[in-house]
């Protein structure tokens, strides 16, 4: 039976049946032909054109397999780059959009048997960041285009310059502190600015000297209109006593103001929405895994993609990959070492000095770096965590 002529009802019916995706098992990748049913696929495999394609494939199977795999990977990565960019996306969602195109290269013609194998291969070759969760595999595209590399280099240079400025300011503040301590030890008088104070009921006297001006009454005599001044007139001006200032309203010293401004700047720069760090002790607070792991302590072995971590439970030794939303920090006993995981002193090791249960905050002492020995108050519970092994 010949093909239906263009425009006939039979031709239109065939077109409507062929529209959209058909079953994968009735598709021939070598011939790029989709059959609608088992009988049609059987007839196609017995055709002369299909046999010729099989002979070509038998001559160099590796070449055809490589070409199909490369074409599939290029199409998948192009869709990931153009459609999703560098956002973390479910790999199966990208695959569903890719196969929606009718003439795509099918995965059963490639070197990968499953989508998971393909995603793992992408992660090993460094094309994406692949991570497995309870909802399946997720991928994040790594943009290595010249424009992206240039933007990244500019951002790194800017961050380095800001860090250098912070380090210089910190070094300047430390020098000022050391100089002030040295002056106190030597007993040398230190220049200090204080507010104006005076004893109670003591009038304020101003010594004002004005140049002597021309006085007409010295020549012509006093005017009759000028009356004699009272004998109790004085040359001093007395002002009303101002209200005394309270001790709490005394202004801070210039050094304290510089330190305060610097801490605010560091707080804005280092406050992030992620806080996981390796080698800290955390508590698992999710009940989704059952009572076995609920509220159990674990150590963070590896941080994955900033927001997820691979943890090892201290009691059982079991390992899990979890999101930071399922974890919380652990506060150790006093005089134990902690790591500042968020805020102005992010990444600094410190010593727990004081615990304020009423305000849910602590006081810590920085252990290393140019800020060694500094006491930091009002640090929130969620900004510090116990260091494993201390």
Can you characterise this structure?
The protein is 35% helix and 18% strand. The protein has 390 residues and is an alpha+beta fold. It has a five-stranded antiparallel beta sheet, with no helix packed on it. Strands 14-13-12-11-15 form a five-stranded antiparallel beta sheet, with no helix packed on it. It is elongated, with a radius of gyration of 40 Å. Mean pLDDT is 78; it is low at 218-241 and 245-251.
Shape: elongated
> Count of helices?
9
Main sheet overview:
5 strands, antiparallel
Helix content: 25-40%
Mean pLDDT: 78
**Biggest sheet strand line-up:** 9-8-7-6-10
The percentage of residues in β strands lies in 15-25%
- Protein structure class: alpha+beta
Query: What are the segments in which pLDDT stays under 50 over at least 5 consecutive residues?
Result: 218-241, 245-251
Secondary structure: elements and pairs:
Elements: H1 9-18, E1 27-28, E2 33-34, H2 38-45, H3 48-59, H4 61-84, E3 89-90, H5 91-99, H6 115-124, E4 128-133, E5 136-141, H7 146-186, H8 217-220, H9 254-270, E6 281-284, E7 297-304, E8 308-313, E9 319-323, E10 327-329, E11 337-340, E12 349-356, E13 361-366, E14 375-380, E15 384-386
Antiparallel strand pairs: 1-2, 3-5, 4-5, 6-7, 6-10, 7-8, 8-9, 11-12, 11-15, 12-13, 13-14
Helix pairs in contact: 4-5, 7-9
GO cellular component, one term: nucleus
Protein name: DNA/RNA-binding protein Kin17 WH-like domain-containing protein
Region (Disordered): 177-199
């Amino acid at each position: 039976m010949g093909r239906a002529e263009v425009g006939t009802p039979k031709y239109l019916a065939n077109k409507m049946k062929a529209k959209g995706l058909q079953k994968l098992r009735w598709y021939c990748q070598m011939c790029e032909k989709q059959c609608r049913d088992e009988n049609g696929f059987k007839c196609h495999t017995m055709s002369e054109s299909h046999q010729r394609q099989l002979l070509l494939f038998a001559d160099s199977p590796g070449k055809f397999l490589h070409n199909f795999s490369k074409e599939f990977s290029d199409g998948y990565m192009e869709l990931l780059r153009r459609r999703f960019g560098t956002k973390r996306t479910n790999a199966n969602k990208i695959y569903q959009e890719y196969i929606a195109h009718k003439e795509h290269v099918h995965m059963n013609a490639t070197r990968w048997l499953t989508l998971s194998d393909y995603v793992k291969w992408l992660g090993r070759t460094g094309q994406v960041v692949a991570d497995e969760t309870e909802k399946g595999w997720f991928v994040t595209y790594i943009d290595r285009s010249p424009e992206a590399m240039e933007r990244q280099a500019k951002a790194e240079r800017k961050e380095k310059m800001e860090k250098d400025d912070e380090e210089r300011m910190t070094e300047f503040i430390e020098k000022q502190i050391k100089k002030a301590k040295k002056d106190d030890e030597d007993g040398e008088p230190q220049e200090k600015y204080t507010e104006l104070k005076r004893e109670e009921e003591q009038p304020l006297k101003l010594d004002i000297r004005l140049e002597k001006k021309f006085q007409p009454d010295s020549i012509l005599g006093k005017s009759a209109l000028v009356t004699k001044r009272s004998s109790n007139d004085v040359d001093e001006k007395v002002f009303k006593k101002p209200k005394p200032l309270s001790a709490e309203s005394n202004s801070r010293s210039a050094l304290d103001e510089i330190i305060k401004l610097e801490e605010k700047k560091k707080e804005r720069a280092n406050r992030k929405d992620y806080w996981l760090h390796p080698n800290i002790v955390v508590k698992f607070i999710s009940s989704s895994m059952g009572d076995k792991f609920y509220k159990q302590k674990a150590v963070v072995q590896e941080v994955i993609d900033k927001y997820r971590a691979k943890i090892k439970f201290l009691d059982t030794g079991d390992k899990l990959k979890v999101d930071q939303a399922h974890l919380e920090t652990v506060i150790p006993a006093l005089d134990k070492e902690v790591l500042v995981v968020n805020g102005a002193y992010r990444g600094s090791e410190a010593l727990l000095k004081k615990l304020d249960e009423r305000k849910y905050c602590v006081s810590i002492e920085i252990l290393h770096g140019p800020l060694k020995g500094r006491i930091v108050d009002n640090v929130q519970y969620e900004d510090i965590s116990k260091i494993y092994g201390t």
